[in-house]
């Protein structure tokens, strides 16, 4: 069972438009409303893969009620932790060429009691979890050390920790030796404090995170593919992608595929790549199902192309 933690969930509305013209009336050609937040997306993708999941998240106000309803309608078992503030609402605008414009609200500020209630709910659920996936930014009111405290409690309960966050929260949690961290290229560059121009740069940065405490690093390198650095060595995975409709949640789908496939080694990396490639070809934050995956199109190799320039260098 995979338990997900989303400290700052959202109600996500996605519009597909012919073009985004600033200052003009833009008529959408498509619209979606989804429960959002990185951990929520992981639960949705894990559930679609047929793996048991439990979503722990703080919810408040009418938007929070709607998030709970949408999760229930999708068959996701949720453990809502009531908070006084209103769950945030986010807007994404997707253009035909794959350009995505996102407006993310800050979300509510959690009190000290609400933060502790969230930790308590995670600790209780961790008793039956194989993995605890800690995902996304921390809301106002939670210190950067909050994920570290969560990781310590989950490890005590016998669960493995997957961490998908960035900045001070990522760095603080490394001391608790998360079993896998999943940064994208920009987050990886931020963590080590230097730009990444090649796949080799990303490998060195991932190895540095392992030296700081991460047991494994699953790094998303955008169109270049994904990199796994763990005790089994270095592995690089990629897959061809047709038309990109939306990259919202693609990294979350990748983490879900990785964990659902066991969370270690090249086989799990191949599942992560297949899920990520499928997700970017779906609208909004739709999570892929097994029917959307093309595992035969995935290539995983231990001969990592260290000198390859990244299509999207990370500053």
UniProtKB/TrEMBL annotation:
Protein name, UniProt field: 1-phosphofructokinase
Keywords annotated in UniProt: ATP-binding, Kinase, Nucleotide-binding, Transferase
Organism: Streptomyces triticagri
Lineage, opening ranks: Bacteria, Bacillati, Actinomycetota, Actinomycetes, Kitasatosporales
UniProt-recorded Gene Ontology molecular function terms: 1-phosphofructokinase activity; ATP binding
GO biological processes: carbohydrate catabolic process; small molecule metabolic process
EC code: 2.7.1.56
Record flagged with keyword Cytoplasm: no
Membership in a protein family: Belongs to the carbohydrate kinase PfkB family.
Enzyme class: transferase
Domain Carbohydrate kinase PfkB intervals: 17-290
Gene: pfkB
